[in-house]
Amino acid sequence: MRIDVFTIFPDYLAGPVDASLLGRARSRGLLDVRVHDVRDWTDDPHRSVDDTPFGGGAGMVMTPGPLFAAVEAVAPPRPLLLLAAAGRRFDQDRARELAAAPGFSLVCGRYEGIDQRVADHLCDGELSVGDYVLAGGEAAALVVVEAVARLVPGVMGNEASADQESFTAGLLEYPQYTRPAEFRGWPVPEVLRSGDHGRIERWRRAQALRRTLALRPDLLGRPLTPAEQALLDEFPA
Ligand code: JCQ
User: Fold this and answer.
1) 147 Cβ contact partners less than 8 Å away, ≥ 6 residues apart
2) Is 181 helix (H, G, I), strand (E, B) or coil?
3) For the whole model, what pTM was predicted?
4) CA distance 172 to 153
5) Alpha-carbon span 88 to 126, nearest angstrom
6) Which atom of ligand 1 approaches the CA of 129 most closely?
7) How many angstroms from the chain centroid is the CA of residue 91?
C-alpha cells in the first residue's frame, strides 16, 4: 500500500513513520509511505507557503500554489484527503475502506487554515480525527496512517488479531491479563485460568458487553438481545 503525505513539517512525520510497526512494514515492502515537503515546490527565495487572508482578519492562510504544484508533480494515489476539523469523521469503518484501496494520500494544513480552492479543486474529500483544533494536520495524518496501516495484510504479523477484532466488532475490548497470576493482592479472574475455553469466550463477551453498555452505549445503539442478557446473568459483575 502506498500513502503519500504533503506537509510543511516532514520531520514531524519521519520519526513515527520509521519507528515501530510502520517502520517494520515499510522495510518489509508492505507499506510505501512517502512524505513530501510542500516547501520544495515554492518559487520565492523565502520559500513562503502562507499569506494574509483576503477580507482581513487574524492569522495566516496556507497558499494554494505550492500544494497544487506538489500534487501535480508527484501524482499521488487517490483519494487525496485533507485533514481538517470540518471533515468527515475518521473511524474504524473509514480505516477499513482506505485499507482496501491500493493507496491514498493526505494533505496537512497549517496556520489558521488553508485556501479553500485546495479543498474544492485539488482534494477528493476532508477527514477529521475528532472535534478539537490542532495546530496542523500532521498529528491527525499520523493517526490515519497508523490506523490504516495496521489493517494491511501482514503488517501486524499476528493474523489472528483480525479474527479477534470481528469477534467483538462494535464493542469495547474485554479486559486482558498476563502474569503474575496475583499482583499486589489483585488476582487474575479465575475463569481465565480454568482452561475451559467455551466459558472463557463467554466471559470475555460478557465483559465486552458490560463495558460497552456502561461506557459507550452509543456504540451498541440497541437493546441487549435475550442471549446477551443471559450472558451478563451468567457472569454477574
Ligand atoms: C483534524 N480534527 C482536527 C489545522 C489548519 C485545513 O486547515 C487546517 C487543518 C488543521 C489540522 O486539522 C485539525 C483536525 N481533525 O485541526 C489548521
Assistant:
1) 90, 92, 95
2) coil
3) 0.94
4) 23
5) 6
6) 15
7) 7
Cα separation, 174 vs 120, whole angstroms: 43
Task: At 215, give phi and psi (nearest 5°).
Answer: -100, -35
Q: What are phi and psi of 213, to 5 degrees?
A: -60, -40
- Max Cα distance, the chain (Å): 71
Please name which of 174, 110, 100 lies closest in space to residue 137, comparing C-alpha atoms: 110
Number of other residues whose CB lies within 10 A of the CB of residue 168: 16
Mean pLDDT (the chain, rounded): 95
Q: Return the ligand 1 atom nearest residue 133 CA.
A: 16
119 lines ligand 1 (CB under 6 A): no
Length of the chain: 237
Q: Does residue 113 have its Cβ closer than 6 Å to ligand 1?
A: yes
User: Is the CB of residue 81 below 6 angstroms from any atom belonging to ligand 1?
Assistant: no
Gap from CA of 62 to ligand 1 centroid (Å): 12
How remote is the CA of residue 185 from the centroid of ligand 1, in Å?
Answer: 46
DSSP 58-91: SS-EE-HHHHHHHHHHH-PPSPEEEEEEEEEEP-
Q: What is the DSSP letter of 135?
A: S
Run of H or E residues at 153: none
Pocket of ligand 1 contains residue 86 by CB under 6 Å:
no
Give tens-digit pLDDT for 163-198. 566 666 899 999 999 999 999 999 999 999 999 999
